[in-house]
Design brief:
Elements lengths: L2 E6 L4 H12 L6 E8 L2 E8 L2 H8 L8 E7 L14 E2 L5 E9 L2 H10 L12 H13 L2 H6 L16 H9 L4 E9 L2 E10 L4 E4 L4 E4 L11 E4 L4 E6 L2 E6 L4 E2 L4 E2 L15 H7 L1 H12 L28 E6 L1 H16 L5 E5 H4 L10 E6 L6 H14 L4 H5 L1 E5 L5 H5 L2 E4 L12 H20 L5 H34 L6 E6 L4 H15 L2 E6 L17 E4 L6 H12 L5 E6 L3 H6 L2 E5 L8 H18 L18
Parallel strand pairs: 16-17, 16-18, 18-19, 19-20, 21-22, 21-23, 23-24, 24-25
Antiparallel strand pairs: 1-4, 1-10, 2-3, 2-4, 5-6, 6-7, 7-8, 8-12, 9-10, 9-11, 11-15, 12-13, 13-14
Bound molecules: 2-deoxy-2-amino glucitol-6-phosphate.
Length: 646
């Protein structure tokens, strides 16, 4: 949610900053802006809308400045207009600030500043920051004191560098409430870039005599893989000579950069028209990566005393487990519903799945034998982090075993989630750029297969032969996904033509494929802007069936297994209301072939493993309908990849 990027060093900053914004545009695209220190002044250019509007404004501009900050916005406070675009500056235009997050006490700070005569030029929460920094710089420099004859109320012991920009920022961040990350430059301190973090991500990249900062690593990996992640309550002073890190209390901290095992190619489209399509095609590889990371390929039924899964979780996590509660949002919530099915059906553990945004204000009563799992691909979703933080607080004061029963499932173990919970399952999907989650969903499902199988084996509640069959089935998944991609993409692209003007869609599934119906509907909604609903097929007759007529297509997932016949009957009920029926089902199922008007065939597959394959045609259908409608698939309107605000 909002992307921030900064540069200080020996090269012209603006090109690097624009390139960084391109990599971060998935975090928000309501407006963009850039500020540099040029000829002793802040030079700030901003534009409403997508990044290309800012690029057009900057076209032909020669800007040799070697320091700058830039921002891509997802609007929270104030409309997506140019006057609300970041960077924001102080009245004298000497200080420029960009922010990701929300300053919760901005109203009172704004009133306070207004009472001192400050005039605001935006509706944002961010604008209070440059004004407060300007005042702090002035006060530290003694100018205000001299003018007013007052004594400073800042304890001298806390002043690190009187009159420094760093100290002014430090004093101001201590007054801000909320979750935020900021970057600050000043025309009076042309060799300093200050960044601060309070519950919104900031990474710093280390080059040779040049340094980068950003909300996320894709903006930095083209230049360096040596990165340092700021923790909550830390700020850093970046100069061409190096980076110093301090706590918000003013204490100098020793931190060393780590090396990312990424390469810049991972954040390119590699010939695909959109990141989303590339990421859909990466799914066989994602499943393979998960199998390699967590499965013991040499395991056979004869090894039934041991688990075939290597999650490296401490055994205390599993001991006396009586309940699992999962918190997540969006697509991660759908993956968690599949996880619930697996944890209950394979491991026999009662499991509840909650929206993190609901859970944090109405948590279920906690029992000592409850494991709480937070699922978030980005590891930065504010609601999920807040729910887990609350869960951590609830457990504080109880025994260590109780406190340790917190687990995160994420694609970004280096994220805020990684700092919050004691145990992590890394989903190994690689960076996902498309705002609509695809490969990270499949990777989360793989994490749940691992966890459910490991728990089932630990509790000795799964028969060795069933386990062996499951493992064999999991090994076949990459090839089965490939088969669907190769044989069905063209067909689905053609099919999408029929729905370019469709207004409403219904997705049906039952059992373990009900969450896939929800996910199919969410994918279509978010990238094609078509209204879509996912339902458990058996619920249709209790109300939603009233929506059906010839204009509302129904997509039903019908996989042989416990609910196959039931789904086909429910589909017939929809057909009787003239709905066009599209079935995701194995080709050679005669009854299904007679039921559906259109079949998107998938391989025969164990029902328990089928979600990993049945979701693929639904992702492709959403993608091709949106592409056919000429929409911006990777950056759908009003959305952002990581929702770092409540
Ligand atoms: C998925 O397509 C969406 N963009 C969204 O629902 C997303 O899954 C949700 O915001 C949760 O994100 P997280 O997994 O990073 O926590």
């Amino acid at each position: 949610m909002c992307g921030i990027v900064g540069y200080i060093g020996t090269q012209a900053a603006s090109g690097i900053l624009l390139e960084g914004l391109r990599k971060l545009e998935y975090r928000g695209y309501d407006s963009a802006g850039i500020a540099t220190v040029l000829e002793g002044k802040i030079h700030c250019v901003r534009a409403k809308g997508k990044l290309h509007n800012l690029e057009s404004k900057l076209a032909g501009e020669e800007n040799p400045a070697r320091i700058g900050i830039a921002h891509t916005r997802w609007a929270t406070h104030g409309k997506p207009e140019e006057y609300n675009a970041h960077p924001h500056t102080d009245t004298a235009n000497r200080i420029a600030v960009i922010q990701n997050g929300i300053i919760e006490n901005y109203r009172e700070l704004r009133d306070e500043l207004k009472a001192r005569g400050v005039e605001f030029r935006s509706d944002t929460d961010t604008e209070v920051i440059p004004h407060l920094i300007a005042e702090a710089v002035a006060e530290l420099s003694g100018q205000r004191l001299a003018a007013s004859g007052q004594q400073s109320n800042i304890p001298s012991a806390l002043i690190l560098h009187p009159s420094s920009l760093l100290e002014a920022v430090r004093l101001v961040v201590n007054r801000l409430e909320g979750a935020f990350a900021i970057a600050v430059i000043s025309a009076d301190y042309p060799d300093e870039l200050i960044v601060a973090r309070q519950q919104a991500p900031v990474v710093i990249g280390f080059g040779q005599g040049e340094f980068y900062c950003a909300s996320d690593t894709p903006a930095i990996v083209p230049y360096t893989r040596a990165v340092l992640t700021l923790d909550n309550g830390e700020l850093a002073r970046m100069t061409p000579l190096g980076v110093e890190v301090y706590s918000f209390e003013g204490q100098r901290l020793r931190k060393t950069p780590r090396t990312l095992n990424w390469n810049p190619v991972m954040v390119e489209k590699q010939g695909f028209k959109h990141f989303m399509l590339k990421e859909i095609y990466e799914q066989p590889g994602v499943v393979r990566a998960s199998l390699e990371a967590y499965f013991d390929s040499a395991w056979t039924a004869a090894d039934h005393q041991h688990s075939p899964i290597r999650l490296n979780l401490p055994t205390e996590l599993y001991a006396d487990l009586q309940h699992i509660q999962i918190v997540a949002c969006g697509t991660s919530w759908h993956a968690s519903l599949v996880g619930k099915y697996l944890l209950e059906q394979l491991a026999g553990i009662p499991t509840s799945v909650q929206y993190a945004s609901e859970f944090r204000y109405a948590p279920s009563p906690l029992t000592p034998h409850t494991l709480t799992i937070g699922v978030t691909q980005s590891g930065e979703t504010a609601d999920t982090l807040a729910a887990l933080d609350m869960e951590k607080q609830r457990r504080a004061g109880h025994g260590p075993a109780f406190q340790a029963r917190l687990l995160g499932i994420t694609n970004r173990p280096e994220s805020s989630l990684g700092q919050l919970v004691p145990h992590i399952i890394d989903t190994h999907a690689g960076i996902e750029i498309g705002v609509a989650a695809t490969k990270t969903f499949v990777a989360q499902l793989m994490a749940f297969y691992c966890l459910a199988i490991d728990l089932a084996q630990h509790r000795q509640v799964i028969a060795p032969t069933q386990l062996e069959q499951l493992l064999a089935g999991l090994q076949q998944l990459p090839a089965q996904i490939e088969m669907v991609l190769e044989s069905q993409e063209r067909y689905i692209e053609q099919l999408a033509h029929d729905f370019a003007e469709t207004q409403d869609f219904i997705f049906l599934g039952r059992g373990i494929n009900f969450p896939i119906a929800l996910e199919g509907a969410l994918k279509l909604k978010e990238i094609s802007y078509i209204h879509a609903e996912g339902y458990p097929a058996g619920e249709m007759k209790h109300g939603p069936i009233a929506l059906l007529d010839a204009k509302v297509p129904v997509v039903a997932i019908a996989m042989p297994g416990t609910v196959f016949e039931k789904v086909l009957s429910n589909a017939q009920e929809a057909r009787a209301r003239d709905a066009r029926l599209i079935g995701v089902t194995p080709m050679d199922e005669q009854e299904a072939a007679h039921t559906f008007d259109t079949v998107i065939p998938v391989p025969h597959i164990d029902e328990l493993l089928s979600p990993i394959v049945t979701v693929i045609p639904l992702q492709l259908l959403a993608y091709h309908i949106a592409a056919r409608r000429g929409l911006d698939v990777d950056q759908p309107r009003n959305l952002a990849k990581s929702v770092t605000v409540e």
